[in-house]
Amino acid sequence: MAYFDVAILGAGASGLMAAIEAAKKGGRVLVVEHAPIAGKKILISGGGKCNVTNRSISYKDYFGQNPEFCKTALQKYRLESVLQLLQKAEIDIEEREQGRLFCRQSAKQLVHFLKESAEDLGVQFVFNAEIEKVEKGGQLFDIETSQGHFSAFQVVVATGGLSYPQAGATDIGHKIAKYFGHRIIPTKPALAGFVLPQNSRLKNLQGISLLVKASIIGKMEAEEPLLFTHNGLSGPAMLQLSCCWEKEDPLQINFLPSEDVLTLLNLPENGKLQVKTVLSRFLPDRLIQAVLPAELLSRKIAELGKKDRNEISRKIHTFEEKPLKTEGFMKAETTKGGVDTLQINPKTMESLLVPRLFFTGEVLDIAGRLGGYNIHWAFASGYLAGRSVISMEIR
Ligand code: FDA
Which neighbouring-strand residues pair with 154? Predict the structure, then answer.
């Protein structure tokens, strides 16, 4: 059985970063991955350009039972650390709205750089190897895979969460954690769109996209684009809200945050116009027809009473909709829940129950909001674990 000082399980953002840092310490480092290539999620992230981090980043951008767990990792691996990494990889950055930093070139370049950096440091990769089980006998961990057993003194579980199984996600990380006595916080899809009930007024509006202010009252608010899909609602505004959404929570949507509808209706010059004429200056006709009754839309504004005016304003500014469910793990960009961070050392990512066993990235009960926070977390936690493995010289 081949022996390694450190075995990294999973060649995603977190595993690659952990491998690079662990290998700098000089021991034999292995990365086991069931896909034929590294970094599949990085490759598809941000539409192939990977939203790799954000200008503003803090533990408050993360969800979980204990978001403060992220503090140390984010202090040790900062925005500047990602910028340095991109500079070394000769990747230019492109800044988009809300401080989101994307690779200007293809994310392939980033994955290539990470893998090559690891290989240059002597990291061995075994691809197409399904991890089936990890056990500990005496001092060493035994990693059972579809390509045979590997033995390691230290193990970093970087196998990700449950989101996007089509890119390789499995629950093996949670299984390994449970086997070693770790608690798993119940998992949920996050950064996913919503499915609407058949009778929803917002059904059949697919293709429409507009800037909205959407909220789950008392929990979260997002001023971002909303995209109507075949199933219901998506786009950045909805992905953000999905991180806090519980079944039965209504979404409240302001379809026109830049204007006040009551003011528009009260303008004397609009009095002779039909309601739909004024609203269609700002909103797509199909949307207006879906949220307001035809009878009201065809009325002249001067004929409207106070009640009608308030009703129009309410439907445009505080439209309420109760989704059936989220689009689930098949469409979710990340996973809420996972390995309970209360049983992990935030300064090292090492298990508090089993020495020399580490957990990093999405497998942990940490999920970032939309905007580069999840890749940053994967890097930051992988970095900390890689730096925390016991140096081979000390052993
Ligand atoms: P990740 O899932 O990347 O890696 C885990 C690895 O383990 C995978 O390579 C997997 O194949 C492997 N593995 C799993 N089970 C195994 C088994 N049994 N045996 C062997 N190997 C196994 N975030 C962001 O910040 N900016 C963005 O632009 C985007 N965009 C985006 C788009 C889409 C479509 C998705 C699905 C996700 C995003 N994300 C994102 C989220 C981000 O990609 C994600 O949170 C991180 O890549 C997670 O990194 P990890 O290394 O923790 O897991």
Answer: 6
Residues with CB under 6 A from ligand 1: 10-15, 32-35, 40-42, 44-46, 50-51, 130-131, 158-160, 163-164, 167-170, 172, 333-334, 361-362, 372-375, 378
Q: Summarize the confidence of residues 194-210 as an average pLDDT.
A: 96
**Residue 393's pLDDT is what?**
57
Q: What is the mean predicted confidence (pLDDT) over 309-322?
A: 97
The closest-lying atom of ligand 1 relative to the alpha carbon of residue 382 is 51
- pLDDT band for position 395 (50/70/90)? low
Tokens 């909103």, residue?
Answer: 283
CA atoms within 13 A on the CB side of 392: 15
Give the nearest ligand 1 atom to 173 CA: 15
Give the other-Cβ count within 10 Å of 6's Cβ: 28
Q: Which residues pair with 135 in a beta bridge?
A: 142
* Residues 45 and 39 sit within 8 Å (Cβ to Cβ): no
| pLDDT value at 394 more than 60 | no
Helix boundaries (H) for the chain: 13-23, 40-44, 71-76, 79-88, 107-120, 172-179, 236-242, 261-266, 275-279, 285-291, 294-297, 306-317, 373-388
- 86-113 pLDDT, tens digit each: 999 999 999 999 999 999 999 999 999 9
Give per-residue pLDDT as tens, 123-160: 999 999 999 999 998 999 999 999 999 999 999 999 99
Residue 335 parent element (H or E): strand 334-339
d(CA 257, CA 214): 9
Packed helices 13-23 and 373-388: angle between N→C axes, nearest 10 degrees: 30
Of the candidates 301, 294, 313, the residue with the CA atom closest to the CA atom of residue 274: 301
Q: Record the pTM.
A: 0.96
